[in-house]
TrEMBL record:
<feature type="binding site">
    <location>
        <position position="165"/>
    </location>
    <ligand>
        <name>Mg(2+)</name>
    </ligand>
</feature>
<protein>
    <submittedName>
        <fullName>Citrate lyase subunit beta/citryl-CoA lyase</fullName>
    </submittedName>
</protein>
<feature type="binding site">
    <location>
        <position position="72"/>
    </location>
    <ligand>
        <name>substrate</name>
    </ligand>
</feature>
<dbReference type="InterPro" id="IPR005000">
    <property type="entry name" value="Aldolase/citrate-lyase_domain"/>
</dbReference>
<keyword id="KW-0456">Lyase</keyword>
<dbReference type="InterPro" id="IPR015813">
    <property type="entry name" value="Pyrv/PenolPyrv_kinase-like_dom"/>
</dbReference>
<dbReference type="InterPro" id="IPR011206">
    <property type="entry name" value="Citrate_lyase_beta/mcl1/mcl2"/>
</dbReference>
<feature type="domain" description="HpcH/HpaI aldolase/citrate lyase">
    <location>
        <begin position="10"/>
        <end position="241"/>
    </location>
</feature>
<keyword id="KW-0479">Metal-binding</keyword>
<dbReference type="GO" id="GO:0000287">
    <property type="term" value="F:magnesium ion binding"/>
</dbReference>
<dbReference type="GO" id="GO:0016829">
    <property type="term" value="F:lyase activity"/>
</dbReference>
<keyword id="KW-0460">Magnesium</keyword>
<feature type="binding site">
    <location>
        <position position="138"/>
    </location>
    <ligand>
        <name>substrate</name>
    </ligand>
</feature>
<feature type="binding site">
    <location>
        <position position="138"/>
    </location>
    <ligand>
        <name>Mg(2+)</name>
    </ligand>
</feature>
<dbReference type="GO" id="GO:0006107">
    <property type="term" value="P:oxaloacetate metabolic process"/>
</dbReference>
<dbReference type="Pfam" id="PF03328">
    <property type="entry name" value="HpcH_HpaI"/>
</dbReference>
<dbReference type="InterPro" id="IPR040442">
    <property type="entry name" value="Pyrv_kinase-like_dom_sf"/>
</dbReference>
Amino acid sequence: MDKDVTRARRTILAVPGSSDRFIAKSRTQPVDAIFLDLEDAVAPPVKEASRQRIVEALNDPQGWQAPTVTYRVNDWSTPWTTMDIVEVVGGAGAEVDCIVLPKVTDADQVKALDLVLTQAEQAAGLPVGGIGLELQIEEARGLLHVAEIAAASARTETLVYGPGDWMASMGMKTLNVGSQPPGYVGDAFHHVQMSILVAARAHGLQAIDGPFVGIRDLEGFKTSASSSAALGYDGKWVLHPSQVEAGNDIFTPPAENVERARRIVGAYRDATAEAGGAVGAIVVDDEMVDGAGLAVARATLAKIGERA
């Protein structure tokens, strides 16, 4: 399978899989992606019933405005993971773009998910490899193995930073997920975010920032999103419609950058065709552009979902 890392993922809306009301509201949100949650947002007594609710929601012909639809299973330390995969893929796998796996700590967990997912696709008569993976790095062990995790499956499209569980696992002195802990003068998240980003880019994946829980603190959300966007992250989870517009704006490249990227890609394509593939550097807008510049242009277009 060719992983689709050209999907726009500027904003990814978290939707509790146990709530018909929130599922209905999510259908018209102007986000790039949604994920229907079976993990943190769903209480243990209703996890099994929520699988069927998600299957029904996925099969509903209303669909979503969001072009990418995913769902999050429970992590492998729970008794629910396998059936989260089997029941939802078996019931509505044709409507699923990706599965989100939380609390990934090593490559074996990714390989196990890939194996079960392959069997579920086969049993449902679906193309093997058609469903991608999004992997959450949320604790120390996962970060130590992040490169191996990124390389563990050809299905993987994104690595996702999970700030809530990360902050808890580190013992950070704050209850505001996504906010800097008081008393630390630097950026407490820089190391983990950059490590995830490096592993993602080294393996041709997107990197997604996790949520900022202060849904009434729009300035705090903007600060958090702007920081990860400046590093090079492709998007951010959002928890509330109030965060969507700002998230889309922050993770959308400036219009002039997009137009220049299109000119670079087009000029390179024309030059390559004329030279029979033997092109080193070209001139675009009176500036030299080589292979590295082309890569930057393509990455810019990928952020808005354009394959170049």
